[in-house]
Amino acid sequence: MEKLYEGKAKVLFPAGPDTLRVYFKDEATAFNAQKRGLIPGKGVVNNKVSATLFRYLEAHGVKTHFLEEVSDREMRVLRVEILPLEVILRFKAAGSFAKRYGVKEGTPLKTPLVEFSLKSDPLGDPLICPEAILALGLAAEEELSQVRTTTLKVGELLRDFFAQRGLDLIDFKLEFGKRQGEILLADEISPDTMRLWDQKTGEPMDKDRFRKDLGGVEEAYQEVLRRVLRG
Ligand code: UDP
Q1: Which atom of ligand 1 is nearest to the CA of 98?
Q2: Which residue ranges form the domains of the chain, and what is each CATH number?
Q3: Which of the listed residues 193, 209, 214 should we mutate to test ligand 1's pocket, taking the one with most ligand atoms within 8 A of CB?
Q4: What would the DSSP string read from start to end of 101-137?
Q5: d(CA 29, CA 192)
Q6: What is the pLDDT at residue 1?
Q7: CA trace torsion 38, 33, 88, 138 (10° rounding)
Q8: Residue 125 CA, closest ligand 1 atom number
């Protein structure tokens, strides 16, 4: 079938007037696509982890675009108009945050922190403050407040979910979409978009293994899937 859009990690196909089929690829990119590679089996892991987390969040009252898993690498979702924002929630300092403020990776934050980046490959997803989001009309005040509240709720739910599976949720990125005036959680939630550290060893079990050439990338993704499906 004709694809609608191909991104760095996923391909979108039309699946009826109101729904899409999302295909998860094994291709991996980092540092604004300057680094490219393949993580065999990643597409299957990300599809199944995302599907499981969307179902878990829905069961706890979070509205998402997720409809159903249709194969190992594919899910069906509602069509939404994606807000051009990456919404990041941090529990501990890592990655660009640790670098920006000169703090050690793993430093706990006093409160969970919501940050926004403008989704723009040419600009390298720059940080954007809430006032600029409103001034540029990227979201309305009420939408932004809903995005923030939902992100904090998702953070608490996911942190519990992973803690029960021996994983420390350090930070993650969400994207939201609009459908018939309603804000829905969209995109994916996977080891590509989260930092998860093993509670016992402190080892990263996510895309940082690829970003930092730590080795054992495939194995870490498979281990996250195994723990997520453990229920
Ligand atoms: N993240 C993402 N997509 C991006 C940027 C970040 O999924 O384009 C995720 C990343 O995996 C991490 C969190 O958002 O879990 C915070 O990332 P950070 O801002 O520290 O950026 P990074 O150091 O990963 O570039």
Answers
A1: 20
A2: 5-78 (3.30.200.20), 82-215 (3.30.470.20)
A3: 193
A4: HT--TTPEEEEEEEEEEE--TTTT--B--HHHHHHTT
A5: 9
A6: 75
A7: -130
A8: 8
Please tell me the predicted confidence (pLDDT) of residue 224: 98
Residue ranges in the chain whose pLDDT is less than 50: none
Residue 46: both structure tokens together = 């990300």
For residue 21, what are the CA distances in angstroms to 75, 117, 182? Answer: 6, 26, 20
CA of 65 to the centre of ligand 1 (A): 21
**Ligand 1: residues whose CB is within 6 Å?**
86, 88, 94-97, 125, 171-173, 193-195, 207
- On whether the CB atoms of residues 179 and 79 are closer than 8 A, the answer is yes
CA distance 11 to 24: 7
